[in-house]
Amino acid sequence: YDVSPSQELIALGIANVGGAFMQAFPVMNAFGRSAVNVEAGAKSPLSLMISAVSLVVILFAITPALFFLPKAVLSAVVLTAVAGLIDVKGAMHLWKTNRMDLFTMASAFFATLFLGVELGIIISAGTSLVIFIYLSTTPRVVRLGRVRGTVAYRPLEENSTHETVDPVRRTRILSFYGPVWFANAPKLKEEVLATAERYDVAGAAYAHRPWDAIILDCSNISFFDSTAITQLVEVHKYLMTVNIRFVLAHCNLVVIAAVTESAPDLQIFHTVHDAVIDCLNSSKKPINTLRSFFKSGAAVNRLSEAIKKREEEAKGDGLSDSD
C-alpha cells in the first residue's frame, strides 16, 4: 500500500497533542520496528495494530522472561532489520544521475551516524535549503538552434540526440530554465547583455554584429516577478539603443499578462519559429504576435495558415547558417 508522509505526520501530531492531555510520553515513528515489520512480510496497516497488541502482551506477560536477554541480541535483531533500509543501489543511481541529491543524502547519513538524529535532520534540511537556493539563483541559460528540416528548436551545446541543430543566422535565441524572480533576474539580464555586447568591443560598429535580434524562449519560464519585469524592460531599452531587436516567444498566460501590463512595447510571439521568421524579415509590427492573436479573431486564421505554410516549407526556408 502507498504511504502518505503528510498523513503520517498529521497522525503523529494528533497523537502527541492528545497524549499531552493524558500525561503520555511523546510518540514518534521507529525505523527499526518498521523495518522488522516489513521484513516479516507486512502488507497492510492491519499489521501495525497486530504489532501494537503483540507489544502490549509482551510488556505485561513476557517481560520477566526477557529480562536476562543480552542487549547484543536485541541490537543484532535491530541491525539485521535496518540493514535493508540502506539503499546502496539508490546511491549508485544518484551518482550517475544527480550528484547534488547524492550529496544531500550523504550529508544526512553521516551527520545522523556521527552527530545524532536531531543534528542529522537539521544538517540535512539545511543542506537541502542551500542547494535549493543555489539552483534557484543560478538557473541554466542555453542557446537554441533550429533542428534541420523542421520548425523545432533545440539547445546547440547540449543536443544529445542524433538531430542536426543549426544556429539561426543573424539571430541569437536564448532559453531560460525556471521562474524569473528577484534572486535570478540579474542572471537573465547578464546573459542577454553579454550576448549583445560580445561583439561590441571598443565601440565596434553595430553593422559588424553576426545577429540583429535576440529572442528569449519563455517556454520554461513559469512567471516573472516585478523585479524581473523591471530588468526585462531595462534590457529591452538598452538593446533598442544599439539597434538589436529583443522579443519574447512561447510564453504562458501568466507571463503574457505580466509583460503586457508592464512592457507594452515588448513583442511576444506565439512560437520561437514565428519570432525567427519575423526577425529575419525585419518586420516592425508582426501580425502573428500573441497580442494580435487575442485582439483579433481573424488573426487566429492568419496565424494557423502561416504556421502550416512554414511547416511545409521548413526544409527550404533558408533559416540556418548552413542552408
UniProtKB/TrEMBL annotation:
Gene3D superfamilies: STAS domain (3.30.750.24). Residues 161-249 form the STAS domain. Its main location: membrane. It holds the Pfam family STAS. It is found in: Membrane. SUPFAM superfamilies: SpoIIaa-like. PANTHER family: SULFATE TRANSPORTER. This is STAS domain-containing protein. It comes from Bicosoecida sp. CB-2014.
